Amino acid sequence: MSDKSEVRAELMKKRDAIPTEVRRAKDRLIRERLLALDEIKVSNLIFFFASFRSEIDTLEPMTLLLAEGKRIVLPKVDRKNHLLLLYEIKSIEELVPGYMGIPEPAVLSEERTITVNDIEAVVIPGAGFDEAGNRIGYGGGYYDRLLASIGKDLPVIAPAYEEQITESIPSEPHDIKVTMIVTDRRVIRCTG
Questions:
Q1: Number of folded domains in the chain?
Q2: 10 lies in a domain?
Q3: By residue range, what is the domain housing residue 88?
Q4: What percent of the chain has a predicted confidence (pLDDT) above 70?
Q5: Could you give the CA distance from residue 32 to residue 46 in angstroms, rounded to a whole number?
Q6: How far apart are CA 76 and CA 103, in angstroms?
């Protein structure tokens, strides 16, 4: 399976097949491991994604972090410029369906705009990952462009179900690696 679209389809099929009750238990384990990370504990401004379809639940961890006084930033898709615009949210109640139905910030005022270099930690989605930190996204390249624009070293954390971890993800030179993967079984500190 060296073709990215085949790998993506196979990993999405595995993720979609996780039964609801099992998914809830896995979400809880991932949430506990994610929130226990030193990289999350020391960060005050954290970039997150809002979960969609069969992705790991991120609404609960965001709610808990907001209650702790952390600042949460979410992307809004700018289709025209093929970019992610970043906005701080104060509550998950501020999310509305956006591009392809994916939840994104509704409050788009200037004072909520965040630049990528203000962020202290990044939590990103993906269809699948390998232990070297290679990530396969959903094919739009939005997150690779966002990560490539960061001018400093940041923890790039991918919460994922164990079913999304595979031996090898085909990667290209422009693909940005994650620094750690948090699953329902373990925290993988990527070596790649």
A1: 1
A2: yes
A3: 4-186
A4: 98
A5: 17
A6: 9
Q: CATH no. for residue 122?
A: 3.40.50.10420
* β-pairing verdict for 121-123 and 128-129: unpaired
Tokens coding 93: 């109640």
Q: Which amino acid is at 156?
A: V
| Sequence-ordered list of residues with C-beta below 8 angstroms from that of 144, at least 6 positions apart, any chain | 137, 174, 175, 176
List of long-range contacts for 65-72, beta carbons under 8 Å, 24+ apart: 65/35, 65/40, 66/90, 66/91, 66/92, 70/43, 70/44, 70/45, 70/46, 71/44, 71/45, 71/46, 72/46, 72/48
Q: Which two tokens stand for residue 156?
A: 């790039």
Q: How many CB atoms lie within 10 A of CB 114?
A: 17
pLDDT of residue 67: 98
* pTM confidence score: 0.94
Q: Is the residue at 171 inside a domain? A: yes
User: Residue holding tokens 């930033």?
Assistant: 73
- Tell me whether residue 158 is in a domain: yes
pLDDT given for residue 151 in this prediction: 83
pLDDT 10s digits, 87-123: 999 999 999 999 999 999 998 788 999 999 999 999 9
Residue 111 maps to a domain: yes
For residues 131 and 173, what is the distance between their CA atoms, to the nearest angstrom? 17
